[in-house]
Give the backbone structure.
Amino acid sequence: MKILTKPYDEEGDGMRKCLMAVISSAALALSASEGFPLVENGQARAAIVTPAAPVPVVQYAVDELKNHIQLMTGCELPVVTEDKLPGGFDKFIYLGNTRAARQWNIDVDKLPINSTVRKVTDDAVYLFGLDGDGAPPLNDSTPMGTLFAVYDFLNSQFGVKWLWPGDSGTYVPHEKTIFSGPPREIMKRQQLMHSRMRDGSGLGDYSKVMSKEEFDRAKLERQTWLRRHQFACGTSFQYGHAFEHYWKRFGKTHPEYFALRSDGKREPNSPKRPKLVQLCVSNPDLHKQIIEDWVNNVQSYKGPFINGAENDKTAADEHCFCEKCLAWDPPSKRMPVHEYQEAEKKEEMPDILSDRYARFWLALQREGAKHRDNPIVLGYAYSDYSAPPIATKLNENIIVAIVPRMNYPLEPEVRGLMTDQWDGWRAVGARLYLRPNYFLTGYTLPYIFARQFGEDYKHAYANGMIGTDFDSLTGMFGTQGPNLYMVARLNDNPELSVDEVLADFYSGFGKAAPKVKEYFELWENATNGYTREFARQNPGGGWNYMGFSGNVLYSMELVAKAEAILSDAMRLSQDSPDDVARVRFLEKGLKHTRLTLEAMNAFDAFKKKRSDREAKRKFLEARDKLNGYRNEIRNDQVINVVIPQRLEQWMGWNIR
């Protein structure tokens, strides 16, 4: 190669022009591989096109696409209807069931609910799917294929991600030029018939901590986040415990519908909570009543399925002791040791009642078939009927909600609890969906179990899972972010590995990613200290056991280490305002954790000597300080300030 000594001499200038031509050709080749520009140097090069009369789903999808592109590029793409294409543009993004999309001979009406189509040509992007008449994001039941196609496009083409609700949790790359992607056709079928995280805000009274406007805005942000991760109830599994009103309806007229208790009575175990009454599930007259309710659509939860989900219960011995129900149980029905974490002695292990409930569902199915073809029965694998049946086979028209009787973390010797339960129910022939209470367990603290949960979720998905129903989205995004991102990300892309999901979450913090990873791994390691032995020594209260023992599991020294890690993360973030905002979000969560643990420690000191006025004063002061900080961050989605009210009432904090 000749060395140029004069940059602009005749020969040198020719060499320079040749080099620039090579660079330009490379740039053109790169652009071609990325498709055509949607925005170039901050200027719109494409318009968004909708049908002439777009349904609300498409209108919302337009707003989401346009707003995210504007966040990325600073450019607002024009939006037009198909019958009014603008001059000056020859590149388009078609959203919804447009005439232009129909030229590809894809029958939108025959697409599975919430499945998506993305087709990219040399001059257009088509994003569409089956759309209903409902309006997202609050409506999670209407088909929304076009909206989900937009989210897939934003994520896979541009790297947009939604770490938590609100502006700071929305990660977008900042680029002045973005491309359509190369010509392709991608059809994505939603594998889950139903995916849902229940909003847990009903666990408290919002009016005590925020205005109605603030509450509605916070809920809207959470529901927006869920839609962005493609949670949707295409086929509703929202049935719940089926017979909570039966005692009121039939307690006097048909006491034989209800469980014969061990004391010989047929009535609720708790008169103040009649909705917890248990049933005599072998009674054929009860079966006829349930089917009559189904046929006449007077079930507590409306829908096409026969709801066979037994009521909740308060004690293990509340089931029916009549001779026929007992005869429905197999001779050997003791729950194996590994299935029951809390058992210290063999005689404390509960019976497996799964066979009687499996036979109950089959009886409902037979009775229902007298009225309609191929009836589907929904039931719960819950409480002392969570283990798989021993002697009863089911079929695909029995859908069972798996409600694991364990919570994370799990020690190595019981690590397979959830997957064994899942595989056992699948082996008896039922279709399954996941209906756990995992996300209720952590109080407001950094109780991190993302890895174990993700591994078990992927196992269920790979082994026939048809839906999910998580109780509940408590919204502790500033302290439990990896848990919530894991369930959200696997919902929209279950093919990702657990490591890929975690790496995706941490990458949203830019240069601070290694420190944020270190921060949450610190909390994960501490959370793994919640063993069966720890639980025996530190009993909790229902599913809120961290509200009773979190200050034992997490020390103030641990908080100090976490503060130092986030301080380093903030230092690494200084050249990116977006990253600073995200690290600051975690700092708010950590401050809330410190104040919570201080209040818990003060309350424990007060409990030891309730007559000590100084101990009471210190607790009230710590509680008021915590509540004051919650008031400061009530609109930030760091924690859901509505929920702790109920939890702390259970904990005994409502003293004056």
Summary: The chain is about 40% helix and 10% strand. The chain has a mean pLDDT of 91. The longest helix spans residues 577-608. The longest strand covers residues 465-473.
